[in-house]
Specification:
Elements: H1 8-26, H2 35-45, H3 52-63, H4 74-93, E1 103-104, E2 107-108, H5 110-113, H6 116-135, H7 140-150, H8 155-165, H9 172-197, H10 202-229, H11 232-235, H12 241-244, H13 250-254, H14 256-272, H15 280-291
Antiparallel strand pairs: 1-2
Helix pairs in contact: 1-3, 1-4, 2-6, 3-4, 3-9, 4-6, 4-9, 7-9, 8-9, 9-10, 10-14, 10-15, 14-15
């Protein structure tokens, strides 16, 4: 497939629509009890966003020649599950006891729209549904991948380290470990799950794993940079919050210029994993992450 045949914008838009359809299908209806809880879940999950994690899973599945015939395929369950756990993490991250944010994706955060108790339970419920969906893939390995990415060695552990690092001087090695777990683990996991569900061989899985690790860390470094240089309207959330909360970030540890250089190098390393035209979508997705404004 020649490089020019893949239009990244069209690819992202097409698969974002697929993700939206899956989320709407698999989320409980607001008409079902408990209505307020289901309303909060749908409010947060369907509020938009890049849908990057499920799209990465789909890209890996497609690249590894997974079966795309039919509705409610294992990859569909996995895509919805990944976006649900991502949203659950955002709901909890926005709470007053964590980052205390008022806006997310350009609208009120869940606890501001509803209340703190509903927000906590909405996050918990999304976590539960996500694992039910992942179990429906009939892949024990995929379930294990998600659990490991979210646990104390992954996102939750990274978030704990992030909280403990507030206001402290830390090293580049320490901030890298925080970012690899807090954000990178779920992105890496998304790529791996797509490949696993397509029965990729170990060589290919290893290749995609390296790609996921590189873009996962780059994604969070760019997030740190956007909190300084970003446009609040494009981001859909307030900028400058990391500095106010004395959060551990790459610009704080290394300086803004070196943070840019680090992100650029990681993106290049991710691109260099692939060496043929058929992998072009991964190269384009890496560049999309590098150039994102939100």
């Amino acid at each position: 497939m020649p490089a020019e045949a893949i239009n990244t914008k069209d690819y992202l838009e097409k698969n974002k629509r697929l993700v939206e359809e899956l989320l709407d299908r698999y989320l409980p209806s607001e008409a079902e009890e408990p209505q307020s809880l289901h309303a909060a879940m749908r409010y947060s999950v369907l509020a938009g966003g890049k849908r990057l994690r499920p799209i990465l899973a789909f890209a890996a599945y497609e690249y590894c020649h997974g079966d795309l015939n039919g509705q409610d395929l294992p990859i569909h369950y996995a895509m919805a599950a990944l976006e649900m756990v991502h949203t659950y993490s955002l709901i909890h991250d926005d709470l007053p006891c964590m980052d205390d944010d008022d806006l997310r994706r350009g609208i009120l955060t869940c606890h501001k729209k509803f209340d703190e108790a509903v927000a906590v339970l909405a996050g918990d419920a999304l976590h539960d549904i996500a694992f039910k969906l992942m179990a429906m893939t009939d892949s024990i390995q995929a379930v294990k991948e998600l659990a490991q990415a979210l646990g104390t060695k992954g996102m939750i552990g990274g978030q704990m380290a992030d909280v403990e690092a507030e206001g402290k001087d830390i090293t580049e090695q320490e901030i890298t470990l925080i970012h690899q777990r807090k954000t990178g683990a779920l992105i890496r996991c998304s790529v791996r799950i797509g490949a696993i569900l397509a029965n990729a061989d170990q060589t290919l899985l290893n290749k995609l794993t390296i790609f996921g690790e590189k873009i996962g860390l780059a994604f969070q470094i760019i997030d740190d940079i956007l909190d300084i240089e970003g446009d609040q309207k494009l981001l859909g959330k307030k900028v400058g919050s990391d500095s106010k909360k004395v959060k551990a970030t790459y610009p704080k540890v290394m300086g803004l210029k070196q943070a840019h250089s680090k992100a650029d190098q990681l993106i290049q390393d991710a691109v260099d994993v692939f060496d043929d035209y058929n992998d072009n979508i991964f190269k384009n997705l890496a560049q999309y992450i590098a150039q994102r404004k939100r």
